[in-house]
Write a structure and sequence with these properties.
Blueprint (H helix, E strand, L loop, with lengths): L2 H14 L3 H20 L6 E3 L5 H14 L2 E5 L6 E5 L9
Antiparallel strand pairs: 1-3, 2-3
Helix pairs in contact: 1-3, 2-3
Amino acid sequence: MSLTQFSMVEELAYLVKDNLPCKHLVLSMEDMLVHFLQNETSLNGVLELEPMNPYNRLLLHRLADIFGFSHQSIGEGDDRHIVLKRCEDTSMSV
């Protein structure tokens, strides 16, 4: 794990420190991302997540950074959600 990845992991841990629902979200999304990376065989490697509130999107953007996904939020209001795309830096070695 690089120093940058370590810093990102520390930041994410701090953001969810005393918030059990957010911890659960991050851990379940981490499992989903690992599963996606192990099983996604299509060339585009795109994963579109469900709409969620701004704070949860922030957490998942941080998680996407740790895994090395390209990511962006799209949509408006209650339909705003994250789209992740596998890229050459995407890895499970965090």
